[in-house]
Amino acid sequence: MKFLQLTFLTLLLIATNALAHTANQEGATRLLQDPEVKILNVSEHIYNGEFAAAEKELQSLIADDPDFRLTQLMYAELVSTKPDKTSGIGDWLAPDNNEIAGLVDEIRQRYANHTLSKAYTKGKIPELLLQISPSQRQVVVIDSSLSRALIFEHNENQLSLVNDYYITVGKNGVSKTVEGDSRTPLGVYFITSRLNPLGLDKLYGDGALPLNYPNEWDQRLGRSGFGIWLHGMPSDTNNRPPFATRGCVAFPNKDISLLYNTPQIENSPVIITQGINWVDPAQNTPFRSSLSRQINAWKNTWKDGEIEQIKTYYAESFSSGPRNRESWLQAQNTLLQQASYKEFELSDLSMFKYPGASEMVVVSFNKEYADSIAHQNERIRQYWQLSEHDVWSIIYEGPAQYQPIHFKGIPDAVRPTLADEVQRRAENVGS
Do domains 136-276+404-427 and 281-399 have the same CATH topology? Predict the structure, then answer.
């Protein structure tokens, strides 16, 4: 009996996690096939103790699709265990050891979150997505609280939710701070490369997409660790609990394969958060416009070349790598003696609110000098922060380039070379 309970519990966990994407609600984006939606209905019946209804639904599913093995297994174990029809799933699967108790708790958690994740209203977007640059064709938003990875397609200034994947994060949860803590970081990251699965350990499944953890903010806060990837699962694993990795974000293999083979995926931002606030795009306009005006004013001040005026845009807590505000501005003042350094335009600009720090925004753009011979165009990343007095200031600025630590832990057989990175940037300006 314990074996049957544990097996059926696992099936329910798979069904609930994999199927809590969307429901038949008016205005919802349908991202699931009907059989999968029906399995979620079965799980709901079982959760409510409606075993007769669950059995009837499973019989219908088997008649519609005799080769759907999951429904056959669920039906076989449902009729063989013969639970008390007056009990709910919590009573029926009442555990007598901690391992099963954890799985029961996970079903309850996933089912509770199902009501939040089963419908994404058309026309709404995550509040964190303030502005996507023209070169960024996809945006990945990972909601660790719901074990979801949402894939948005960016086309002609419009965002469309095109895929919604179940994912697994660190076995100790999120908010990574130190190496080896088995936590997944929260923040704004960018995919550095794509790693061929043929050169990887089978642990990573059908491909891997490394992220630039630790990013500039992580490094400023002294967070350690490396090798945070989006990757698949071992071929003999169909599903993993929501909290099971050493810090990476793991996808089912069929899903990571789709993501891995997406054109220009290396140019995609990956925002890892704990909960999503869905808003109408227009709700982001005042906040974004306020920052846009400040960025334009900042650019024009550089054109004037007055370092004391430029200084007013940088917070006292500003840093750029090892340099503090004063030493960094001193170096910039030296460069300002060259007239060609003052003349530049901004293009391909993106803005993302930082998870857990809603008043901080990661801004990336191309800095294109009027005299491209004297100064090479570059990709710049800034962190802007809005004070309690509604004043914007820059707390970090530097080149948006990947560092050696971002490639640490990648096997030599699949390690991107510097030449690869230079070529990628030449073909499609990096994020």
Answer: no
Instruction: Give the HSE-up count for residue 256: Cα atoms under 13 Å, Cβ half-sphere.
Output: 26
* Residue-wise pLDDT tens digits, 328-345: 999 999 989 888 888 899
383 vs 394: CA distance, rounded Å: 6
Q: Are 260 and 206 in contact (CB under 8 A)?
A: yes
Q: Alpha-carbon distance 177 to 168, whole Å?
A: 19
Give the predicted TM-score (pTM) of the model: 0.79
Partners of 148 in the β-ladder: 143, 166
d(CA 127, CA 50): 38
Architecture category of domain 281-399 in CATH: Roll (3.10)
- In the numeric block, which tokens belong to residue 222? 């002294």
The mean-pLDDT minimum among 65-69, 191-195, 211-215, 254-258 falls in: 65-69
| Separation CA 263–CA 252 (nearest Å) | 20
**Short-list 322, 162, 191, CA closest to 331:** 322
Rg of the Cα trace of the chain? Answer: 25
Distance CA 264, CA 193 (A): 10
CB atoms within 10 A of CB 107: 22
Neighbouring-strand partners of residue 211: 191
**Share of the chain residues as helix, strand and coil, in percent rounded to the nearest 5:** 40, 25, 35
Q: What are the structural domain ranges in the chain? A: 2-117, 136-276+404-427, 281-399
Distance CA 100, CA 107 (A): 11
- Residue-wise burial string across 357-378, b where 16 or more C-beta atoms lie within 10 A, e elsewhere: eeebbbbbbbbebeeeeebeeb
Give the pLDDT band (50/70/90) at residue 283. very high
For residues 271 and 240, give the distance between their C-alpha atoms in angstroms, rounded to a whole number. Answer: 22
Identify the sign of the CA torsion 330, 332, 333, 337. Answer: positive
What CATH number is given for 136-276+404-427 in this structure? 2.40.440.10
User: What is the pairing mode between strands 278-279 and 125-126?
Assistant: antiparallel
